[in-house]
Amino acid sequence: MATLAQRPARTPLHAERIFFLSMMAALVVLVAWGFAQSFFLRHWLTPPATYIDRPGWVGWTFIVHGTLFTCWLLLFGLQTVLIGSKRLRLHKQIGRSIYPLFFAMLGVGTFVGYLGARYGFHDVPFDSITFSALPWMVLGAFAVLAWAGIHERKDPQRHKRLMLLATIAISDAGISRVVFFQQFLPPWMSATVFMILPLIVWDLATLHKVHRTTVLGGLLVAASLLLSVPIGSTRAWHMLVSSVLGLHGVPAGQFAI
Q: Model-level pTM greater than 0.85?
């Protein structure tokens, strides 16, 4: 009887671990797929021309940028596995040491966005000023969600959702490069936004409602992904970037470096 009484309590926790592990695996696979040719497997495949090919500090800046964001994705995966294997103590120790990586990502990510706005973005159908809204808005969403997630460790349900949504946001750079998705979506829309749907379905199946963190965090991620190009294409955005940063940008497909 004791065994039967314990099963309902264990089953949801086991299912929860499987869900978050599956989400982690899906993000890792999609980002690796999107960046396989241009970053992860560029020495074995024929990579497209990117800023990594530039000599000197420009190329190294983009290598560092990719490495930092890859480290976050791998760390998110490791933390998910540790929770799934009940290594809670080690999970907490790693979580407390995440701040240097977090701030390094924000600093380098912001600068790389500036380089793209100034010199042009690869493989996007928009001028550099218009498209610059996307990396900066996505990075802002990541900063808010990850910072909140780091400080919500005492509430596991909020913590898990915040960290997952933050990781979904920064995974857009890789997912948006998956050619398979591009043929079905308009240029301004990213397939990454659909990664929020499994979390909504999970909430409905387990809580019979959508968790408040999923609603607010999901809306922030969706807004950063879907509204950035429309915002970036406005005259107000172009004037803001031009007046604050002194940039005028370059047309789509052109590079000034």
A: yes
